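Notes taken during the Thursday session

The instructor put the following on the board and asked us to keep it in front of us for the whole hour. The protein is Phosphate transport ATP-binding protein PstB. We were told not to look anything up and to reason only from what is written here. First, the residues (297 in total):
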Amino acid sequence: MNTMNTTATRDVAVEEQEQKTQPVEDPRPEQAELEEGKTVGVPYVDDPKFRLRDVEVFYGESRAIKKISLDIAKNEVIAFIGPSGCGKSTFLRCLNRMNDSIDICSVKGSLELDGDDIYNSKRDVVELRARVGMVFQKPNPFPKSIYDNVAYGPRIHGLANRKSDLDEIVENSLRKAGLWDEVKDRLDATATGMSGGQQQRLCIARAIAVSPEVVLMDEPCSALDPIATAKVEELIAELSESYTIVIVTHSMQQAARVSHRTAYFHLGHLVEVNDTNKVFTSPEHEMTESYITGRFG
Ligand SMILES: Nc1ncnc2c1ncn2[C@@H]1O[C@H](COP(=O)(O)OP(=O)(O)OP(=O)(O)O)[C@@H](O)[C@H]1O
Ligand SMILES: [Mg+2]
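Then, after some discussion, the predicted structure tokens were revealed:
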């Protein structure tokens, strides 16, 4: 047996194998340069509901949002996507001043709702939040009856003078939230005894009971099963006929299903805003592409 030959053959085989398992070179840079305040795509629209310019948000010294400019159109569903910690919730909360409750948080820039400054010190924040409602990641019904949860906002805002008016608002809101048939016979039952999906739809009913113009949703389906998720998504499609909806989601399929435009955030920057179809089929920015193809996130 010729050992020299055997060794030579094995070396060739090992070499070939090594060549085969060499990682394929990815010509794209690991982290493209992000230019502050620069967003590719279509961030602006005519006659917007929200006009947001050079928005910066600080938690103490740390800047979580870096000069973001964006318009949000009337009756549009816009999805915010991006890796964890990139500032989606922080930016969303600026739209109805939910960040006000965080002591160390400060907001700079120009933020307008229908042409009026959201951060004007004379603005009535309770009225703002009635116009710009919010649905959170985790359903948070009050420990009250189903009826009282939905009636809460209309009561504090004095939207109904008579019991029959309030009944009508409660029924309409529950119908719009796709929950009426499931709960109409137990409106006095406590809301915390409902399933997670029902609780989330109840929170949506509660948010729309005060006839808001905008509904902000921060990962509204992350605690729901696929059936409850499908119901909430159907609801978003229906609501978009009368409301502006801003939804943060980690599910790209969900963004693709429910939104008209998608905004991609990265490390406090707004990298790209485009028609949802374009973002998911031919994104303009390489970082958007890296994210939607799962290279990071
Ligand atoms: N209350 C807070 N106090 C201090 N820093 C905060 C606070 N909330 C958020 N941050 C910081 O701001 C940055 C953006 O956070 P944010 O919650 O907006 O990200 P996100 O995109 O919503 O993330 P996720 O997808 O995980 O919800 C992060 O660095 C986070 O640590
Ligand atoms: Mg968040």
